Amino acid sequence: MMTEQARPGPVRVRIAVESRSGGQRIGQEAVGDWYAKGGHAYVRYPEPAAELGRTTTVIKLETNAVKIIRQGEVRSEQTFIPGKRTIGYYETAQGKLELAVNTRSVRSSMRGPNGTALLRYDLEIAGEPAGTYTVKLTIQEERSI
Hints:
It comes from Gordoniibacillus kamchatkensis. This is DUF1934 domain-containing protein. The protein is mainly beta. The protein has no helices and ten strands. It has a ten-stranded antiparallel β-barrel. Strand 3 (40-46) and strand 4 (55-61) form a beta hairpin. It is globular and about 45 Å long. The relative contact order is 0.21.
């Protein structure tokens, strides 16, 4: 997914996340850091959604996979690998839920800290089908003026 040489230190980026399921669309934007480490790209940002409290999200972008990790008041982990079923979780002070995703596709057009990643997957919560989701991540380097 990384098509240019790694840059030293983090790069400030804007992240837009758009999730669609069953005719509903949810969008959010955040500011965070993009960095390269171990041949992979990462994006790290504080969650802007008030219901997630003080939570930091890290997105690991690999060639054919995406991993999303949340740490803080909300803890979760989900891995998206095309054609695979992966088990993750979502945990709050109220308890922990098992999440399973059957990833239909992962597409990326990342060039360094700029580009998009598109995920399409079926979600199960505690063993029950919860819908098919399409998530688009748009990452854009913040330019100083």
